[in-house]
Amino acid sequence: MGHREDLLEGAKRCLLEKGYARTTARDIVAASGANLASIGYHYGSKDALMRQAIIASTEEWAAGVTRAPAAGDGTEKEGADPLERFAAVWDAVLQRIATEREFIAAQVEVLGLLPRDAALREAVGEVLPEGGEGLVAVFEGVPDTEVDPEAARTVGSFYQALLTGLMVQSLLTPDAMPSGRDLATALRRVTAGEVLRRK
């Protein structure tokens, strides 16, 4: 790898180990083996490099999510219950959330920085639609290229909101996380208009 790639890999490591805001240029240099001047040469600034690191880390994590449903689990067959697929995919995603806490912590930290960092907000905002499209593709079991743009916008936003909420919940109450089946049951009850009262 060249210095540019080394710096990005070093920044991604720092993101997991130190977090977004606490990472310094010297931390990245130490993690990458590159020199301080190369950050400015290749990325313009440490902040620009860290923005690229959060985007790259998120894309890598999302690529793992696209492989989440186990091959041959039966949920991809014609006529399979959509809620069964919904539950199976969420179980796989929830497993990743539970085992990749440093990544989840970095994601939640970045969410908190967005209101006060316009450049970070713009960088994340640019890739958000693609993320929604990818989630729809995963949950529907179709290639990204076949996802209807309106479904990507509306249903993708639903999946993103649920994913973001689950990430935050995993840091606050990891022992009280729902299962994929819990989420599917909740969705079924809400869409069926079932009364959610004590019996």
From TrEMBL:
<feature type="domain" description="HTH tetR-type">
    <location>
        <begin position="1"/>
        <end position="61"/>
    </location>
</feature>
<dbReference type="InterPro" id="IPR001647">
    <property type="entry name" value="HTH_TetR"/>
</dbReference>
<keyword id="KW-0805">Transcription regulation</keyword>
<dbReference type="InterPro" id="IPR039538">
    <property type="entry name" value="BetI_C"/>
</dbReference>
<keyword id="KW-0678">Repressor</keyword>
<dbReference type="Pfam" id="PF13977">
    <property type="entry name" value="TetR_C_6"/>
</dbReference>
<feature type="DNA-binding region" description="H-T-H motif">
    <location>
        <begin position="24"/>
        <end position="43"/>
    </location>
</feature>
<keyword id="KW-0804">Transcription</keyword>
<keyword id="KW-0238">DNA-binding</keyword>
<dbReference type="InterPro" id="IPR050109">
    <property type="entry name" value="HTH-type_TetR-like_transc_reg"/>
</dbReference>
<dbReference type="InterPro" id="IPR009057">
    <property type="entry name" value="Homeodomain-like_sf"/>
</dbReference>
<dbReference type="Pfam" id="PF00440">
    <property type="entry name" value="TetR_N"/>
</dbReference>
<protein>
    <submittedName>
        <fullName>TetR/AcrR family transcriptional regulator</fullName>
    </submittedName>
</protein>
<dbReference type="InterPro" id="IPR036271">
    <property type="entry name" value="Tet_transcr_reg_TetR-rel_C_sf"/>
</dbReference>
